[in-house]
Amino acid sequence: MHILLVEDDTEMCRYVTAELAAVGHDVTVSADGRDGLMQAATHDFHVLLIDRMLPRLDGVGMVQALRSMQIATPIILLTALGRVDERVRGLRAGADDYVVKPFDIAELTARIDAVRRRSEMRKDESTLQVGGLVLDRLSQVATRGERRIAFTAREFRLLEYLMLNAGAVVTRTMLLEAVWDYHFDPQTTLVESHICRIRLKVDRGFPHELIQTIRGAGYRISAAQDQ
Question: Phi and psi of 79, rounded to 5°?
Answer without folding.
Answer: -135, 140
